[in-house]
Specification:
By secondary structure, the chain is an alpha+beta fold. Helices cover about 40% and strands about 25% of the residues.
Length: about 140
């Protein structure tokens, strides 16, 4: 990964499925009901299992825990399935969204941010001042 000399500024974990048990239960019931409808309609266990796999894959950010590390040089995102990092120099600005912070590769918010940028999901509660100060140190705030 990176040098051990880099100073870790902020670190946090998010697991959306654990934050709302009711929402998780409703999502699982929806997935199972779709699988049951496909099983009854097509009478195929394979198609039913394929639908479950595809739906859980599409909702993987909800079901798997995500760990974020921010240091002087980069942002790291670790999940059980992947680990990747992006350097601060790749981004131009950031802006707060309803549930997180979007790091943008553009000077102003853009529709391609969800493809080229990086979305940091934040834990429930107020945003840490340490995190915001670190972002402001490396990037400008989008308007």
């Amino acid at each position: 990964m990176g040098d051990k000399q880099e100073k870790l500024i902020y670190s946090w974990d998010v697991h959306l499925a654990n934050e709302s048990r009711l929402k998780t239960l409703l999502i699982l019931l929806f997935i199972l009901s779709i699988a049951l409808i496909i099983l009854v309609s097509y009478q195929s266990v394979a198609f039913s299992l394929l639908s479950v796999i595809l739906l859980i894959g599409a909702l993987s950010r909800y079901f798997i825990p995500i760990h974020y590390d921010i240091d002087d040089q980069r942002v790291r995102v670790k999940t059980p399935l992947a680990c990747y990092e992006r350097r601060w120099s790749e981004f131009r600005c950031f802006y707060q969204c309803r549930r997180g912070i979007q790091l943008s590769t553009f000077e102003i918010p853009h529709r391609l941010d969800s493809f080229r940028g990086l979305y940091l999901i934040l834990p429930e509660g107020p945003v840490s001042e340490v995190l915001l100060e670190s972002l402001k140190k490396h990037l400008k705030e989008c308007y």
